[in-house]
Design brief:
It is a single chain. This protein is of the alpha+beta class. The protein has 2 domains: 41 residues, Orthogonal Bundle (Arc Repressor Mutant, subunit A), CATH 1.10.10; 87 residues, Lrp/AsnC effector binding domain/regulation of amino acid metabolism (RAM) domain (Alpha-Beta Plaits, 2-Layer Sandwich). The strands form 2 sheets. A 4-stranded antiparallel β-sheet has the order 2-3-1-4. The longest helix is centred in the first third of the chain and has 13 residues. The model has no long low-confidence stretch (mean pLDDT 90).
Amino acid sequence: MQLTEKELDLLQIIEDNGRISVEVLAKMVSLTEEDTTKILQQLEEQKVIVEYGAIIDWRKVDNFEGVTAMIDVKVTPKRDVGFDEIAKNIYRFPEVKAVYLMSGAYDLSVVVEGKSLTQVANFVSERLSTLDSVISTTTHFIMKKYKHDGTIFDQGEDDRRIVVSP
């Protein structure tokens, strides 16, 4: 799909700030509010704009015990459908937040969220690993987010740990 320069500008702006008002957005790209709204609606209908979202720093929310894991999955692709069918079987699980086809040692990278390490471990051992095409998995638990989708966490916060040097 070939987009105009204005459409590309709109996409780049809303990718950085999905909450920006149409009024401000229109001024930034020198269009009328009506034209801006029309373009956004067309891009949404064509699924160029898939969703608007927020990035939450869950560590700052009291009593939230969530865990995120990245799981490398080696699979046997199926004839005529390749990796698509197994990816679809995986992304249908509610714990799965993202699935990517990868190059390298593993075929799929799966991002999973759960309430605890045990819940994620149980998902891997009881649901993911038992799928017919899955050969092996390697699970990596995310311990701290420094940057996510272009947003840097902990900006301006001092590190209060004691410096230890040999």
